[in-house]
Amino acid sequence: MPQLREAQGPATVIRREDYTPPAYWVDTVELIFDLDPAKTRVLNRMRLRRNPDVPAQALRLDGDDLNLARVLVNGQGCSFKMDGSTLVLESLPEGHEPFELEIFTTCAPEKNTQLMGLYVSQGTFFTQCEAEGFRRITYFLDRPDVMASYTVTLRADKARYPVLLSNGNLVESGDLPGPGNEGRHFAKWVDPHKKPCYLFALVAGNLVAREQRVRARSGQEHLLQVYVRQGDMDKTEHAMNSLIHSVIWDEARFGLPLDLERFMIVATSDFNMGAMENKGLNIFNTKYVLANSATATDTDFANIESVVGHEYFHNWTGNRVTCRDWFQLSLKEGLTVFRDQEFSMDLCATPSARAVKRIEDVRVLRTAQFPEDAGPMAHPVRPDSYVEINNFYTVTVYEKGAEVVRMQQTLVGREGFRRGMDLYFQRHDGQAVTCDDFAQAIADANPDSDLARLLPQFKRWYSQAGTPRVHASGHYDAATQRYTLTLSQSCEATPGQAEKQPFVIPVAVGLLDAQGQDLALQLVGETVPAGTTRLLVLTEPQHSYTFEGVATEPVPSVLRGFSAPVLLDMAQSDAHLLHLLAHDSDPFNRWEAGQRLALRRALAAIRAEGPAPTAPLDNAFLDAMRSVLRHPALDAAFKELVLTLPAESYIAEQLDVVDPQRIHAVRETMRQQLANALFDDWVWAWEQHKDNGAYRPEPVSTGRRALAGLALGMLCLAARDSGDTVWPGKTYQRVKDADNMTDRFNALSALVVSGHALARDALARFHTLFKNEALVLDKWFALQAGAPDRGGNVLPAVRQLLAHPDFHLKNPNRARSVIFSYCNANPAAFHREDAAGYVFWSDRVLEIDTFNPQVASRLARALDRWKKLAEPYRSAAREAIARVAAKPDLSNDVREVVTRSLAD
Ligand code: TRP
Ligand code: ZN
Hints:
- It is an enzyme of class 3 (hydrolase).
- It comes from Hydrogenophaga electricum.
- One of its GO terms (molecular function) is aminopeptidase activity.
- The protein is an alpha+beta fold.
- The chain has 5 domains: 1-205, Sandwich (Immunoglobulin-like), CATH 2.60.40; 208-315, Zincin-like, CATH 3.30.2010.30; 323-463, Neutral Protease, domain 2 (Orthogonal Bundle); 469-571, Immunoglobulin-like (Sandwich); 627-643 and 650-902, Zincin-like fold, CATH 1.25.50.
- The strands form 8 sheets. Strands 2, 3, 5, 6, 9, 12, 14, 15 and 16 form a 9-stranded mixed sheet that branches.
């Protein structure tokens, strides 16, 4: 059946304030699946009862793309009607006794291109139910506050689907008896925990598993399994290790044990997002499971550790305690991102490695979430309304949400936060709750904390969208030996929120003396100094803090560790920034000082009249960069972060009017200058960091490989200017003989990015080597689609990549590797004067929307910031968005995005 959409009415807006409890509870669900790609039959037997707290009303069950065969109430046929795709039962037994409802439907998994509900990927059945996919499997109360006990029986052909998995524990399995069942078998699973239907999952196919038994502190044994396709077993060790570390960490840090006999991870190559935390049966994008040193980079290894941790930690933060409604999404996502960030940091052996992880997380926040918060899709961490919930799995809900949890930990301390988490689970285990319930538990467990004192105001972080701006200015009074820091705050209007009330902003501050040492800090009114970093909690629009006993004018280090998700405005001299870059004991601010120095130079060159300056970088800056690069004590990973210039997208956010070509040209000139001026230092860095022994994905050698990779890229850039062929030759050799993917790919991208003639051969060779490794081919496609534009050459190359025999538009990873790498991650190639990039974008959005609205809608956001663009880009972008919006049968997903984008 073609997927025709219903006639376009006005989109239904769902509002948080309209929440009402469900009219019925579902206590138990028994599901029996006869799995067949063309026509799967689903028998759904539920025990329901009326919710006594709600006026008596009809039962309305959600459904989507289902064929309904039969409905029985207590074993008897009954009358029902359809309201659109909703199944309505009006004459149900009266009173509050439980009754049995049996629904028999069929669906067509092999035609499911949206990858929501039950679908087939490479011959294996998978499900994806969050947020509203369960209704594509059977009629149900598809909302997270309806929590039920599930028993699931899977029946399928034994040869094609030898492995049959669902949530919980396997209680029975075997061959199916009787005529018509030749060659078929079954498995019956019981989940001992109640859950909302979005956590339901099944997998059926021909898979193999890496297994590991672990013993918990309680002595209970658990079986951990990582299921993959035959042939991928040699890429499962790291995911298994990450899972074991996750189990141990959650018990050690939060006292949260694994609550199942068996915990399974299954990998699929067709997946809309990263991974999904289905109870006891996590389903993952292969990108976040499969890795060995030959096919995966250090970044892949780190991402796998984070995502495995993330999904595992959801078992408590999301599954045991779930969301009352989807507006509370950050209750589980923000908290679980915070937990996976802390997990990765705790696995680091050194403070420097922890700081590197923090800097990487902040970089994501600032390059992706800040723009979202300043654009047409800006929304609070707890949104007030949506048209399509899938559009709200955003960096705001996830990453800013994690910062909001982190600030709570900062305000009550690490131990206080643990007490708060304990209270949260004591109060809410087994419940579907709200963001308010979470913050209340953290505050109640710490009654004397600033958080408890300021809770209603603190919760504005959940309700107000937009990135607050903190303005800081310092004044030193030599006569009184006092230093006064004045902080003020403001926040721009966001769509639908004109007025903003002041936030509670924890600002960690230190003061450095002329030698770069931290001063002991004593605020006026205190009798003794206390510590060298003080947490100032800004609650008013403006407040001044005075330190005493400051013998000489200090250099302030403000917002240490990025203690709040804000934009910091501070007039800092170059001298102060250079001092911080050389000495700050806070690694975050040390890195930040270098970024500010670079950003200041980039912005000056971008804003300069006439053609872009040919040498935006001065010797003071270059010398400072050289000192960091050659520093005897700093870690390689940290050096690599300092020596990487701010991203084009981050630079763009600092400007009122954005000319992507100009930004690109200036940043490239800066890179070229850094490459040439530090040539000898790059040679040194390469020689010192290129050899790292047997590959291990741990922070020290990861940092060394990153710095070696940066050095090689710089050496190829320098070679382009000088006409040198030695370094490109060495780089090509590295593509050929590297013994791990990180080094190999860094070398390949050094050639591609510098535009050297050897890049062609290197790309061809790389393709031949890895033509059977889907995840490596994704990198190969992405590198080319993200390559620096030379005279408009990237778009034609992208069109050719789409015609490549290995390109598959319906596979989200592959589509992203070409189309998103071009539209989202290659601004100078995408924003063309002839608007051809935008036309390409609108064509792809419309094309993908016909079969996978979720992926299309993510792509639709590539032009979110069109209003900031300079002409001719601005008008051309609006036209392209309008062209998408004019299409009559858009999905809700894409329609919501383009409508918001074009608003006022
Ligand atoms: N809850 C998942 C996570 O954060 C992500 C998720 C939500 C998802 N909706 C999805 C994954 C749809 C795949 C498809 O871990
Ligand atoms: Zn999550």
